[in-house]
Specification:
- By secondary structure, the protein is of the alpha+beta class.
- The chain has 2 domains: 239 residues, Antithrombin, subunit I, domain 2 (Antithrombin, Chain I, domain 2); 120 residues, Alpha-1-antitrypsin, domain 1, CATH 2.30.39.
- 24% of the residues lie in helices and 36% in strands.
- The chain is elongated, with a radius of gyration of 22 Å.
Length: 377
């Protein structure tokens, strides 16, 4: 049995897919803290789609909301990647791609040309006869690209004699708040969980002018926390109801409503989240099924018969503190064969003392997305 193992740690430009994907991911992780880069999963599968054919390609195209012309997919990603180059100043936003190939197999030249030109992918042969060494090479790349925030994505057990290829795509972000929190004001406070319990958290405090407001359609308060000298910001979505997060996350896809600038008394927990998710069931539920079957058609990807996806693994990290936020993500796809005159209004109270959702985004793209439901032991 042949294996094709694709690992991705980055974003994609398939917005509609990532909205649908996140809704399912959030539902499956409703009771645990969540960090993800749905766009990472989107770009991972977009790269695989370029090498897919027949029913496999049709299902992937439908779920990923991609054009039938694969050259257009490549052009869109190239334009997206080019738009990021040199844009950030203080905030760091890095995206990188890599392919590792079992030395016994050959990438289809046309596929190699497309991903090299558009996704800036470099390829390197690995020896699967020494699984631990091969895993070490792969994990070193992951560790380097994510500034040691994600240290591993594979183990020696993942590197079998039937492995064909591993594709990696990494995204790393680190930004400083435009308005930093004073660490001296951070103190323990109560956090109310959805099941009506109260638990302690380290709560940060800030009074300043932010874009914020109550959005009636969401029944939630929304605040935008910009990063210094950057086009990126974090949006916090705080439902009015303590147990309102699941309903809120079904509604926030594509949120782009203008927020007024108001004075805000902001209370936000410090938090750190690490999460590994196996995504095969979610993708099958969404309609990508043939890609996991022995009948899968990936002849345009690598010169090996019977290649199919066997696993899709996503790993992500985020830390939010007084200075700002740091985040990284990994996705792995394993393929096998087989009023005038009025005084100023009172400041808005934004107290994130119960479960909330968040995104890190610019005006065009969401890079990271998740929710915080309470401190975890």
């Amino acid at each position: 049995m042949k294996f094709l193992y694709l690992i991705f740690l980055a974003t994609s430009v398939t917005g509609r897919f990532t909205d649908d994907f996140y809704k399912q991911l959030a539902k499956d992780n409703a009771n645990k803290n969540l960090i993800s880069s749905p766009l990472s999963v989107g770009i991972a599968l977009s790269m695989v789609y370029i090498g897919a054919g027949g029913k496999t390609a049709q299902e992937m195209r439908s779920v990923l909301k991609l054009p039938a012309d694969k050259r257009e997919v490549a052009r869109k990603y190239k334009a997206f990647a080019t738009s990021l180059e040199g844009r950030e100043k203080v905030a760091i936003l890095d995206i990188a791609n890599r392919i590792y190939v079992n030395g016994l197999y050959t990438i289809v030249p046309e596929f190699n040309q497309v991903v090299k030109a558009s996704f800036k992918v470099g390829a390197e042969a690995i020896n699967v006869n020494d699984p631990n060494k091969a895993a070490l090479i792969i994990n070193k790349w992951v560790n380097d690209q994510t500034r040691s925030r994600i240290k591993t994505i594979v183990t020696g057990q993942d590197i079998t004699s039937d492995l064909v290829m591993i594709l990696l795509n990494a995204i790393y972000f680190k930004g400083q708040w435009q308005y930093e929190f004073d660490p001296k004001r951070t103190k323990q406070a109560d956090f109310r969980t959805a099941d009506k319990k109260t638990v302690p958290v380290q709560m940060m405090f800030k009074f300043d002018s932010f874009r914020a407001g109550y959005i009636q359609e969401l029944d939630a308060k929304v605040i935008e926390l910009p990063y210094r000298n950057s086009s990126l910001s974090m949006l916090i979505f705080l439902p009015e109801k303590v147990d309102g997060l699941p309903e809120l996350e079904r509604k926030i896809a594509g949120f782009s409503q203008w927020l007024p600038e108001v004075n805000v008394n902001l209370k936000l927990p410090k938090f750190k989240i690490e999460l590994t998710s196996e995504l095969e069931d979610i993708l099958k539920t969404m309609g990508i099924r043939d890609a996991f079957e022995p009948s899968a058609d990936f002849k345009g990807l690598v010169r090996a018969r019977g290649v199919r996806i066997s696993k899709v693994r996503h790993k992500a990290f985020i830390e939010v503190n007084e200075e700002g936020a740091e985040a990284a993500a990994v996705t792995a796809v394993i393929m096998t064969a087989h009023c005038a005159g009025c005084g100023p209004p009172p400041p808005m109270e934004f107290n994130a003392d119960h479960p909330f959702a968040y995104v890190i985004r610019d005006k065009d793209t969401i890079y990271f997305q998740g929710h915080f439901v309470g401190p975890e032991e």
